[in-house]
Design a protein that fits this description.
It comes from Limnospira maxima CS-328. Helix content is 56%, strand content 0%. The N and C termini lie far apart (30 Å). The mean pLDDT is 88.
């Protein structure tokens, strides 16, 4: 799955911050899951940044 653009992420968070709708309605409107909306809002509140995080994990050598 590809990552969402920074502009798209900002639109979701801004719509939530306006407070005019619920997470499920936003998810339907932007065609994403409710968990995606929650995760983006949480990430923005904790870090103030919406840039995508790195995918995967580092493999540790044995």
């Amino acid at each position: 799955m590809s990552r969402y653009s920074l502009d798209f992420r900002k639109k979701i968070v801004e719509a939530y911050e306006k407070g005019d709708t619920y997470i499920r309605k936003l998810a339907k409107r932007f065609l994403v899951s409710p968990d995606t909306v929650r995760r983006l809002v949480k990430q923005y509140r904790l870090t103030g940044d919406l840039s995508p995080r790195k995918c995967g994990t580092k493999k540790k050598s044995i």
